[in-house]
């Protein structure tokens, strides 16, 4: 059905918007998603003649939105792009000299300010989705405020959903807020969290959510409720799992499933706008993209997990944590509103009402949880060196600025007066994160014979991983990935893989056969081409073929903060943090060189080094003559982790500014002073239950009876309270003994939620099993016993200590089981053995046996997330 654009709420208020803009340099336009803010305001401005005085720009925080918005406006104005309407994003420019309405990502706006600090060719800039408060949005607002002071003819429009518009008005000197009302239909709220019976084997949290989604859709279909369904989930992996579960459901023939997440190809993303086939109900499964960035018509049912994945950066350790976290009340309400745009609807919240009521009002702004080094580098490029006093809408923490400064100084990007150094001046030529651009600069300046290889590395580091592990095909996928491994690590593997890909005539088949994401490989190829064009434009030839040692020197110059030394059997440490493990997705997972360099250090279930290559002492000396000495000086050093928002110290909690702490409700009610002091010192409260603290070597340790603790975790609604206990040590009390003694509370809670920790009898598992794979019978015998992996059993009867049954292997194809006291050791060794099994038994195992290995691999791999 054709859209009558002039009937959209924003277009109907055309005159109000123009009148306010004529009288003010800045206005805030506030309205619900779907009212036409994004698409109609640029059209209104164009029709009013603003495009005669300059270009009208609209910024978008996401590529998918920039594409869909530009297509929508071009269609409305009956033009093609590039032309009157165009879009520009990193490594893709669809504009020309005739473009008057330009849709761009906010990162591109920052790049353009470098060439034209006063944005002289623009008449109006509209910052769309401003309520998202991304780092780029906040930086853009600060720079635009400077331009407004010197260009009285310049106009700025802040477009926001109905969330905290007053903050923007206050920042721009109490500028007017234009509120555009839209018809809002009633949405029935249903709080319906997954029901997990604590007496049965516990389904993982993810599986519980997926089961609840399946039953909810079944209910909607049985009740013949009209309209389509929108499901909010936190990430790509669980969306794919949800798609698979719904494909296998009993009502598969009644639904049309459409996933939506950032990595999907453009054509796949656009399917969310298509109607479902006749007789079917469309089910869109999306990340938070569908909260505000994309408007999908016909939605009457929303199923909200209440979760999203947010990145948190630690400026002291230079590490990132991608954390699945409850979304704010504002985001919950945005999601609910998707069900009431065109008629009344229903929102099923897969969490309790009390959970919703305990959430923060708004999502923590990105400026408080993101690496600021790129922003500071761009500020220096614009001549802004007083970083601490820049007029941000929200002032970042001082330690975040100091951490970013330290990063830039380690990269040698700044002079002592904070102006750009010669290295920094070259770094800002590239639209890359500072560490990645530093790789290119090192190659240009010192190792030009590996510039092509360095560009390939930069392209890989600027995208998602191209390696995919489809559920049920893990063994075949890992076997394909193993073919690209190299003794010199992942960075050399990337070069080998890319050159093989480029040489293939049928690239689609190559990606399919090797379990590679074709969209990501195309993006890597496109980025490489763009970077080589930019380098050539500087008059620098792009050559390759030099030694891999020179190449790894370039990588290390950019990733200097992620050069690590082995610290024990399984752990590494950098100059700033310890307890780092090589991620199982790395080709270096089963190795333990003394020194490594990583492309990133990320905290999920623990601290992981991603994209890893080994370094020799000779290479360390070339990178920095003092580096080996510095690393060896911190090797074996003890110290508490600097990550996390709160730390448990004795019987108190040290709280960082702005983060939730602990209160009396933690124990289920108010306590008098003496009771509170006693309990603070000797116990903790979870889910209405009290757990004792005991002292071990002078430090507090929680005593956690298994069944009681499992029920308490299910009853605890406040995840901030659980987060506050993350670093507290504990032990699990089971019938006949103890397990996980001295492990962190965070790990114990995760295992209790996701594994059946009821011990198996010491006589029932294959203690004396030892087999070398020679034929199918050997393979069958091994597969039959994989069910025991990660089961608890008695490790030391004298101390009543339980451990985890672990699968071990060696380079000769021999496999055996043994008990490991530590869970991390059990997990790492078992997954490493399965990786060996991929190589040893790929041709021995039949399809059914492979399925069993795949299920175990998938389960083990999920425990790293």
UniProtKB/TrEMBL annotation:
Q: Which UniProt keywords apply?
A: ATP-binding, Helicase, Hydrolase, Nucleotide-binding
Name the InterPro entries on file: DEAD-box_helicase_OB_fold, DEAD/DEAH_box_helicase_dom, DNA/RNA_helicase_DEAH_CS, Helicase-assoc_dom, Helicase_ATP-bd, Helicase_C-like, P-loop_NTPase
Give all residue intervals belonging to the Helicase C-terminal domain.
Answer: 212-383
Annotated region (Disordered) at 649-673
A single GO molecular function, which one? ATP binding
**Helicase ATP-binding domain location:** 18-181
Q: Where is the composition biased (Basic and acidic residues)?
A: 654-673
Domain of life of the organism in this record? Bacteria
Query: Which SUPFAM superfamilies does the entry link to?
Result: P-loop containing nucleoside triphosphate hydrolases
The family line of this record is:
Belongs to the DEAD box helicase family. DEAH subfamily.
Protein name per its UniProtKB record: RNA helicase HrpA
């Amino acid at each position: 059905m054709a859209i009558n654009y002039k009937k959209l709420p924003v277009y109907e208020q055309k005159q109000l918007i123009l009148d306010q803009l004529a009288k003010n340099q800045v206005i805030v336009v506030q309205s619900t998603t779907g009212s036409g803010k994004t698409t109609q305001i640029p059209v209104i401005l164009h029709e009013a003649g603003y495009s005669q005085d300059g270009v009208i720009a609209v910024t978008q925080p996401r590529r998918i939105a920039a594409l869909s918005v530009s297509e929508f406006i071009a269609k409305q104005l009956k033009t093609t792009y590039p032309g009157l309407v165009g879009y520009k994003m990193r490594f893709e420019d669809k504009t020309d000299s005739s473009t008057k309405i330009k849709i761009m990502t906010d990162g591109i706006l920052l790049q353009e300010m470098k060439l034209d600090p006063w944005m002289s060719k623009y008449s109006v800039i509209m910052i769309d989705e401003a309520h998202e408060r991304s780092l780029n949005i906040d930086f853009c607002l600060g720079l635009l405020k400077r331009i407004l002071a010197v260009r009285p003819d310049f106009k700025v429009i802040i477009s926001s959903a109905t969330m905290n518009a007053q903050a923007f008005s206050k920042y721009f000197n109490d500028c007017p807020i234009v509120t555009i009302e839209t018809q809002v239909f009633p949405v029935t709220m249903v709080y319906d969290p997954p029901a997990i019976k604590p007496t049965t084997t516990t389904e993982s949290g993810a599986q519980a959510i997926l089961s609840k989604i399946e039953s909810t859709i079944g209910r909607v279909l049985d009740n013949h409720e009209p309209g389509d369904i929108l499901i909010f989930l936190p990430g790509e992996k669980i969306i794919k799992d949800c798609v698979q579960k719904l494909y296998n459901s009993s009502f598969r023939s009644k639904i049309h499933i459409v996933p939506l997440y950032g990595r999907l190809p453009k054509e796949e993303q656009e399917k969310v706008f298509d109607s479902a086939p006749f007789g079917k109900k469309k089910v869109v499964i999306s990340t938070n993209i569908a909260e505000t960035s994309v408007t999908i018509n016909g939605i009457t049912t929303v199923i909200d997990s209440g979760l999203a994945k947010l990145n948190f950066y630690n400026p002291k350790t230079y590490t990132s944590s991608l954390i699945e976290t409850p979304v704010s009340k504002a985001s919950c309400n945005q999601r609910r509103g998707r069900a009431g745009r065109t008629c009344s609807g229903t929102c099923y919240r897969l969490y309790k009402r009390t959970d919703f009521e305990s959430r923060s009002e708004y999502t923590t702004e990105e400026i408080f949880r993101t690496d600021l080094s790129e922003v500071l580098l761009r500020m220096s490029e614009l001549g802004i060196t007083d970083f601490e006093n820049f007029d941000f809408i929200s002032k970042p923490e001082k330690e975040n600025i100091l951490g970013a400064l330290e990063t830039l100084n380690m990269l040698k990007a700044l002079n002592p007066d904070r102006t750009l150094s010669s290295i920094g001046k070259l770094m800002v030529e590239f639209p890359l994160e500072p560490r990645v651009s530093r790789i290119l600069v090192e190659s240009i300046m010192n190792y030009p014979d590996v510039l092509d290889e360095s560009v390939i590395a930069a392209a890989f580091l600027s995208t998602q991983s191209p390696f995919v592990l489809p559920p049920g095909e893990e063994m075949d996928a890992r076997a394909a990935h193993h073919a690209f491994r190299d003794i010199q690590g992942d960075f050399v593997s990337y070069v080998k893989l890319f050159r093989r890909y480029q040489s293939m005539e049928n690239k689609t088949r190559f990606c399919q056969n090797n379990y590679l994401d074709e969209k990501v490989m195309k993006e890597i190829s496109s980025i490489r081409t763009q970077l080589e064009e930019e380098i050539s434009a500087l008059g620098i030839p792009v050559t390759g073929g030099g030694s891999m040692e020179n190449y790894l020197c370039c990588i290390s110059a950019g990733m200097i903060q992620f050069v690590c030394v082995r610290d024990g059997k399984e752990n590494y440490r950098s100059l700033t943090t310890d307890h780092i493990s090589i991620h199982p997705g790395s080709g270096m997972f089963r190795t333990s060189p003394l020194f490594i360099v990583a492309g990133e250090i990320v905290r999920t279930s623990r601290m992981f080094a991603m994209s890893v290559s080994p370094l020799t002492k000779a290479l360390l000396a070339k990178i920095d003559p003092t580096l080996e000495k510095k690393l060896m000086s911190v090797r074996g050093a003890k110290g508490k982790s600097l990550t996390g928002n709160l730390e448990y110290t004795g019987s108190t909690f040290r709280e960082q500014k702005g983060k939730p702490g602990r209160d009396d409700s933690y124990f289920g009610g108010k306590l008098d002073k003496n009771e509170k002091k006693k309990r603070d010192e000797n116990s903790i409260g979870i889910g209405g239950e009290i757990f004792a603290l005991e002292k071990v070597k002078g430090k507090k340790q929680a005593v956690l009876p298994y069944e009681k603790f499992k029920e308490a975790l299910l009853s605890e609604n406040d995840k901030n309270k659980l987060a506050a206990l993350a670093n507290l040590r504990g032990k699990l009390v089971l019938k006949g003994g103890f397990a996980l003694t001295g492990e962190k509370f965070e790990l114990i809670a995760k295992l209790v939620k996701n594994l059946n920790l009821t011990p198996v009898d010491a006589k029932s598992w294959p203690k004396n099993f030892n087999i070398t794979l020679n034929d199918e019978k050997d393979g069958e015998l091994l597969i039959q016993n994989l069910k025991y992996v990660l089961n608890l059993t008695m490790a030391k009867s004298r101390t009543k200590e339980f451990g985890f049954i672990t699968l071990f292997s060696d380079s000769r194809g021999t496999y055996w089981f043994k008990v490991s006291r530590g869970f991390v050791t059990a997990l790492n060794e078992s997954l490493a053995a399965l990786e060996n099994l991929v190589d040893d038994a790929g041709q021995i195992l039949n399809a059914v046996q492979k399925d069993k290995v795949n299920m175990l691999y998938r389960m083990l791999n999920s425990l790293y997330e």
